[in-house]
Amino acid sequence: MNKSLFFILLLTCKAFTQTAIIKGKTVDAKTGEYVSFTNIGIQNESIGTVSNENGDFILKIYSNIDVNKEVIFSHLGYADRIITLKALLEKKEETIKLESIVNQLAEVKVSLKKPKPKKIGRTAKGLGMMHRNYYSVTEKEIDDRLSKEIGMKLSIKKDCSIEDLNFNISTNDFKDLKFRVNFYSIKNNLPDTLLVQKEIILEIKDGYLGWFKFDLKQFDISIDKENENIAVTLQWIHSQKMDNKKGLFSISAGVSPLSTSFYRSKVLDVWKKDDTNLSLYLNAMCN
Question: Which residues contact 201 (CB under 8 A, 6 or more apart)?
Fold first, then answer.
Protein backbone atom coordinates (compact mmCIF):
# COMPACT_ATOMS: atom_id res chain seq x y z
CA MET A 1 0.00 0.00 0.00
CA ASN A 2 1.45 3.30 -1.06
CA LYS A 3 1.77 6.11 1.39
CA SER A 4 2.82 9.69 0.95
CA LEU A 5 4.29 12.10 3.37
CA PHE A 6 3.72 15.82 3.08
CA PHE A 7 5.74 18.50 4.75
CA ILE A 8 3.88 21.77 5.08
CA LEU A 9 6.55 24.38 5.53
CA LEU A 10 5.95 27.85 6.82
CA LEU A 11 9.08 29.77 6.03
CA THR A 12 10.08 32.84 7.98
CA CYS A 13 13.41 34.43 7.24
CA LYS A 14 15.04 37.81 7.34
CA ALA A 15 17.84 38.99 5.11
CA PHE A 16 20.34 36.18 4.97
CA THR A 17 22.90 38.15 6.88
CA GLN A 18 21.10 36.81 9.95
CA THR A 19 19.88 33.43 11.10
CA ALA A 20 16.99 32.11 9.01
CA ILE A 21 14.26 29.96 10.49
CA ILE A 22 12.36 27.31 8.55
CA LYS A 23 9.24 26.11 10.37
CA GLY A 24 7.16 23.20 9.22
CA LYS A 25 4.92 20.26 9.96
CA THR A 26 5.15 16.68 8.75
CA VAL A 27 1.92 14.79 8.05
CA ASP A 28 0.99 11.59 6.24
CA ALA A 29 -0.99 12.42 3.12
CA LYS A 30 -3.11 9.28 3.18
CA THR A 31 -4.15 9.30 6.84
CA GLY A 32 -3.68 12.98 7.66
CA GLU A 33 -1.80 11.96 10.78
CA TYR A 34 1.34 13.71 11.94
CA VAL A 35 4.63 11.98 11.19
CA SER A 36 6.84 12.14 14.26
CA PHE A 37 10.62 12.29 14.55
CA THR A 38 11.54 12.84 10.90
CA ASN A 39 15.25 13.52 10.37
CA ILE A 40 15.99 16.82 8.62
CA GLY A 41 19.50 18.02 7.85
CA ILE A 42 22.30 19.02 5.50
CA GLN A 43 25.00 16.49 4.65
CA ASN A 44 28.31 17.06 6.48
CA GLU A 45 27.01 20.21 8.20
CA SER A 46 26.14 20.94 11.84
CA ILE A 47 22.66 21.98 10.76
CA GLY A 48 19.71 19.72 11.39
CA THR A 49 16.74 18.83 13.53
CA VAL A 50 14.01 16.25 14.13
CA SER A 51 10.27 16.86 13.89
CA ASN A 52 8.45 16.48 17.20
CA GLU A 53 5.63 14.11 18.16
CA ASN A 54 3.10 16.38 16.44
CA GLY A 55 5.18 16.62 13.26
CA ASP A 56 6.30 20.21 13.95
CA PHE A 57 9.90 21.25 13.39
CA ILE A 58 12.14 24.30 13.37
CA LEU A 59 15.30 24.26 11.27
CA LYS A 60 17.83 27.00 12.00
CA ILE A 61 19.99 28.09 9.08
CA TYR A 62 23.05 30.21 9.77
CA SER A 63 24.30 33.05 7.58
CA ASN A 64 27.58 31.42 6.54
CA ILE A 65 25.93 28.42 4.87
CA ASP A 66 25.92 28.06 1.07
CA VAL A 67 22.28 28.36 -0.06
CA ASN A 68 22.96 25.81 -2.79
CA LYS A 69 23.38 23.12 -0.14
CA GLU A 70 20.73 20.42 -0.10
CA VAL A 71 18.32 19.77 2.77
CA ILE A 72 17.47 16.09 3.18
CA PHE A 73 14.19 14.90 4.71
CA SER A 74 14.31 11.24 5.73
CA HIS A 75 12.19 8.76 7.61
CA LEU A 76 12.26 4.97 7.72
CA GLY A 77 9.88 3.58 5.13
CA TYR A 78 10.10 6.59 2.82
CA ALA A 79 12.43 7.65 0.04
CA ASP A 80 14.63 10.61 0.94
CA ARG A 81 13.47 13.95 -0.44
CA ILE A 82 16.22 16.41 -1.34
CA ILE A 83 15.60 20.13 -1.88
CA THR A 84 18.12 22.96 -2.09
CA LEU A 85 18.23 25.37 0.80
CA LYS A 86 17.78 28.22 -1.67
CA ALA A 87 14.51 26.75 -2.93
CA LEU A 88 13.17 26.40 0.63
CA LEU A 89 14.13 29.93 1.61
CA GLU A 90 12.59 31.53 -1.48
CA LYS A 91 9.13 30.05 -0.97
CA LYS A 92 6.85 31.15 1.84
CA GLU A 93 4.89 27.93 1.72
CA GLU A 94 5.99 24.59 0.34
CA THR A 95 4.54 21.08 0.31
CA ILE A 96 7.12 18.31 0.20
CA LYS A 97 5.99 14.82 -0.63
CA LEU A 98 7.86 11.68 0.41
CA GLU A 99 6.91 8.45 -1.32
CA SER A 100 6.83 5.24 0.65
CA ILE A 101 9.25 2.49 -0.33
CA VAL A 102 9.54 -1.21 0.34
CA ASN A 103 12.51 -2.06 2.50
CA GLN A 104 15.00 -3.72 0.17
CA LEU A 105 17.28 -4.91 2.95
CA ALA A 106 16.58 -8.46 4.04
CA GLU A 107 16.41 -8.80 7.79
CA VAL A 108 19.22 -10.82 9.28
CA LYS A 109 18.12 -14.02 10.98
CA VAL A 110 20.70 -16.05 12.84
CA SER A 111 20.34 -19.66 13.87
CA LEU A 112 21.28 -20.07 17.52
CA LYS A 113 21.80 -23.77 18.27
CA LYS A 114 23.24 -23.53 21.76
CA PRO A 115 23.16 -19.83 22.61
CA LYS A 116 24.89 -18.47 25.66
CA PRO A 117 24.30 -15.12 27.36
CA LYS A 118 26.86 -12.43 26.54
CA LYS A 119 27.34 -8.85 27.72
CA ILE A 120 28.73 -6.64 24.97
CA GLY A 121 30.18 -3.31 26.07
CA ARG A 122 31.13 -1.61 29.35
CA THR A 123 29.17 -2.92 32.33
CA ALA A 124 30.89 -0.75 34.98
CA LYS A 125 29.93 2.83 35.80
CA GLY A 126 33.30 3.73 37.30
CA LEU A 127 33.89 6.16 40.17
CA GLY A 128 31.67 8.91 38.79
CA MET A 129 34.62 11.08 37.77
CA MET A 130 33.92 11.16 34.02
CA HIS A 131 30.77 11.57 31.94
CA ARG A 132 29.70 12.09 28.35
CA ASN A 133 27.30 15.03 28.26
CA TYR A 134 24.82 15.79 25.49
CA TYR A 135 25.19 19.51 26.22
CA SER A 136 27.88 21.71 24.65
CA VAL A 137 28.59 25.45 24.80
CA THR A 138 27.43 25.90 21.19
CA GLU A 139 23.86 24.97 22.12
CA LYS A 140 21.85 27.91 23.44
CA GLU A 141 18.52 26.11 23.65
CA ILE A 142 17.43 22.54 24.32
CA ASP A 143 16.04 22.19 20.81
CA ASP A 144 19.54 22.84 19.49
CA ARG A 145 20.36 19.28 20.62
CA LEU A 146 17.68 17.68 18.47
CA SER A 147 19.22 14.91 16.30
CA LYS A 148 22.52 14.90 18.22
CA GLU A 149 23.86 11.35 18.33
CA ILE A 150 26.31 9.61 20.68
CA GLY A 151 27.28 5.95 20.87
CA MET A 152 29.87 3.21 21.09
CA LYS A 153 31.75 0.75 18.94
CA LEU A 154 30.88 -2.72 20.22
CA SER A 155 32.62 -5.98 19.33
CA ILE A 156 30.24 -8.77 18.28
CA LYS A 157 32.30 -11.55 16.56
CA LYS A 158 29.48 -14.09 16.97
CA ASP A 159 25.95 -14.64 15.76
CA CYS A 160 23.81 -12.86 18.36
CA SER A 161 20.20 -12.10 19.20
CA ILE A 162 19.99 -8.78 21.06
CA GLU A 163 17.84 -8.78 24.20
CA ASP A 164 18.29 -5.37 25.81
CA LEU A 165 20.29 -2.14 25.89
CA ASN A 166 21.69 -0.75 29.16
CA PHE A 167 23.42 2.54 30.00
CA ASN A 168 24.16 4.40 33.21
CA ILE A 169 22.67 7.90 33.53
CA SER A 170 24.81 10.08 35.79
CA THR A 171 23.03 13.44 35.31
CA ASN A 172 19.45 14.10 34.26
CA ASP A 173 17.60 17.43 34.49
CA PHE A 174 14.67 16.34 32.34
CA LYS A 175 11.08 15.41 33.04
CA ASP A 176 10.84 13.55 29.74
CA LEU A 177 13.43 12.44 27.20
CA LYS A 178 13.19 10.35 24.05
CA PHE A 179 16.06 8.80 22.11
CA ARG A 180 16.13 6.86 18.85
CA VAL A 181 18.31 3.75 19.11
CA ASN A 182 20.38 3.10 15.98
CA PHE A 183 22.51 0.10 15.02
CA TYR A 184 25.15 0.76 12.34
CA SER A 185 27.73 -1.23 10.46
CA ILE A 186 31.24 0.23 10.66
CA LYS A 187 33.35 1.29 7.70
CA ASN A 188 36.74 2.98 7.98
CA ASN A 189 36.22 2.86 11.75
CA LEU A 190 33.13 5.10 11.59
CA PRO A 191 29.37 4.36 11.61
CA ASP A 192 28.14 3.61 8.11
CA THR A 193 24.89 1.84 7.19
CA LEU A 194 21.85 1.21 9.39
CA LEU A 195 21.71 -2.50 10.21
CA VAL A 196 18.25 -2.44 11.79
CA GLN A 197 15.51 -0.91 9.63
CA LYS A 198 13.09 -0.40 12.51
CA GLU A 199 11.99 2.65 14.48
CA ILE A 200 13.32 2.01 18.00
CA ILE A 201 12.48 4.78 20.46
CA LEU A 202 13.11 4.71 24.21
CA GLU A 203 11.71 7.12 26.80
CA ILE A 204 13.23 8.25 30.10
CA LYS A 205 10.96 9.99 32.61
CA ASP A 206 11.14 12.12 35.76
CA GLY A 207 14.89 12.69 35.99
CA TYR A 208 15.72 8.99 36.19
CA LEU A 209 19.29 8.25 37.33
CA GLY A 210 21.33 5.05 37.40
CA TRP A 211 21.33 2.04 35.11
CA PHE A 212 18.56 2.28 32.52
CA LYS A 213 17.46 -0.95 30.84
CA PHE A 214 15.54 -0.96 27.57
CA ASP A 215 14.01 -4.24 26.40
CA LEU A 216 14.75 -4.94 22.72
CA LYS A 217 13.27 -8.43 22.39
CA GLN A 218 10.10 -7.08 20.74
CA PHE A 219 12.22 -5.80 17.83
CA ASP A 220 13.72 -9.23 17.06
CA ILE A 221 17.22 -7.88 16.39
CA SER A 222 19.82 -10.32 15.08
CA ILE A 223 23.44 -9.44 14.34
CA ASP A 224 25.57 -11.96 12.47
CA LYS A 225 29.25 -12.55 13.05
CA GLU A 226 30.16 -11.01 9.69
CA ASN A 227 29.59 -7.68 11.43
CA GLU A 228 32.62 -8.11 13.65
CA ASN A 229 32.07 -4.64 15.10
CA ILE A 230 28.96 -2.47 15.16
CA ALA A 231 28.04 1.01 16.42
CA VAL A 232 25.11 1.46 18.80
CA THR A 233 24.01 5.07 19.22
CA LEU A 234 21.40 7.17 21.02
CA GLN A 235 19.92 10.01 18.95
CA TRP A 236 18.26 12.86 20.88
CA ILE A 237 14.75 13.39 19.47
CA HIS A 238 12.63 14.92 22.27
CA SER A 239 13.09 16.62 25.66
CA GLN A 240 11.13 18.42 28.35
CA LYS A 241 12.95 20.12 31.23
CA MET A 242 12.03 19.90 34.90
CA ASP A 243 13.65 23.30 35.56
CA ASN A 244 14.15 25.88 32.82
CA LYS A 245 17.47 26.92 34.37
CA LYS A 246 18.95 23.42 34.07
CA GLY A 247 19.52 21.21 31.08
CA LEU A 248 22.15 18.54 31.66
CA PHE A 249 22.00 14.91 30.64
CA SER A 250 25.03 12.66 30.80
CA ILE A 251 26.10 9.03 30.67
CA SER A 252 28.88 7.64 32.86
CA ALA A 253 32.13 7.04 31.01
CA GLY A 254 35.79 6.22 31.28
CA VAL A 255 38.78 6.45 28.95
CA SER A 256 40.44 3.51 27.27
CA PRO A 257 42.82 3.35 24.28
CA LEU A 258 41.00 0.16 23.27
CA SER A 259 37.57 1.81 23.15
CA THR A 260 35.93 3.99 20.51
CA SER A 261 33.07 6.41 21.09
CA PHE A 262 31.24 8.08 18.20
CA TYR A 263 29.37 11.38 18.16
CA ARG A 264 27.94 13.97 15.79
CA SER A 265 26.12 17.18 16.58
CA LYS A 266 23.37 16.79 13.93
CA VAL A 267 21.77 13.96 12.00
CA LEU A 268 23.85 14.33 8.82
CA ASP A 269 26.95 15.92 10.33
CA VAL A 270 30.39 14.33 10.01
CA TRP A 271 31.00 11.55 12.54
CA LYS A 272 33.78 12.11 15.07
CA LYS A 273 35.38 9.62 17.43
CA ASP A 274 37.54 9.44 20.53
CA ASP A 275 38.64 6.92 23.17
CA THR A 276 35.77 7.61 25.59
CA ASN A 277 34.30 4.38 26.95
CA LEU A 278 30.61 4.88 27.73
CA SER A 279 28.94 2.81 30.44
CA LEU A 280 26.75 1.18 27.83
CA TYR A 281 26.27 -2.47 26.95
CA LEU A 282 23.98 -4.99 25.28
CA ASN A 283 22.67 -8.22 26.72
CA ALA A 284 22.59 -10.83 23.98
CA MET A 285 22.27 -14.54 23.34
CA CYS A 286 25.14 -15.65 21.12
CA ASN A 287 26.56 -18.81 19.56
Answer: 37, 178, 179, 180, 181, 237
Spans of the chain below 50 pLDDT? 1-2, 5-17, 92
- 4-99: what CATH class? mainly beta
What does residue 108 show for φ and ψ, rounded to 5 degrees?
A: -80, 130
| Domain regions of the chain by residue span | 4-99, 116-286
CA 284 to CA 268: how far, in whole Å? 29
Output the pLDDT for position 32.
76
Q: Write the pLDDT tens digit of every residue in 246-256.
A: 889 999 999 99
Terminal CA-to-CA distance of the chain, rounded, Å? 38
Measured distance CA(207)–CA(171) in Å, rounded? 8
Contact 278, 252 (CB under 8 A): yes
pTM of the model as a whole: 0.89
| Calpha distance 212→166 (Å, rounded) | 6
153: helix, strand or coil: strand
Residue 34 is given by DSSP the state B
Q: What is the pLDDT of residue 126?
A: 84
Phi, psi values for residue 81, rounded to 5°: -115, 130
How many angstroms separate the CA atoms of 98 and 81, rounded? 6
Task: Give the Cα separation of 224 and 165 in Å (integer).
Answer: 17
Which residues 6+ apart lie within 8 Å of 134 measured at CB? 145, 148, 150, 236, 249, 250
CATH number of 116-286: 2.60.120
pLDDT of the residue at 241: 92
Angle CA(134)–CA(140)–CA(141) in degrees, nearest 5?
A: 75
